[in-house]
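User: Sequence for Crp/Fnr family transcriptional regulator below. Tokens please.
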Amino acid sequence: MIQQNFRNHLSQILGVPINNLDFCTSFYEVKEVKKNEFILREGEVSDATFFVEKGLLRMYSIDKAGKEHVIQFAPEGWIISDTTSQLLNEKSRFYIEAIEESTIVITRDGFFEHLSKEYPEVAEKNQRLMFNHIKNLQNRVNALISTTAEERYLDFLKKYPNLMLRAPQWMVASYLGITPESLSRVRKELAKKKFEI
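Assistant: Structure tokens for Crp/Fnr family transcriptional regulator:
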């Protein structure tokens, strides 16, 4: 039985006819992932894309000083992968880890090729998703170097509603490129402004 969120992604985002979705079931696998379990580690070559059916994942790197840098969170309905490793067959520089017990749908190389042969419009829609992903990464890099911590935090809240209730504050601070103490100050200042309004 195809997973509900993944079913919605295939039909609503990629345009696979809903009565033909069972065609896809032989091209992916569903996996239950425990909290703190890794689905990708630095140094491994990835051939997979991970769709989050339920739960929460994060992708991060570790610098030479041992400090973690969160690149992306992936709650329900999100896709996460090391695209560089996957497309160029390179060793990954990242870790992908479950923050919560999660159910993920794993698609490997060839999944979208199979879909595109059956439904040619899928290739174009998948390419648009890739371009949108690149745009979001560029916007994120620009925000890290040109916006204030408060602006980045407010953008985070728009992008990831309710994630502050699910992810540890230090992980959110890492994603924002600030210390947990700075994040606490930003949140207090925003609460104060809201109270004064």
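The two ends are 50 Å apart (CA to CA).
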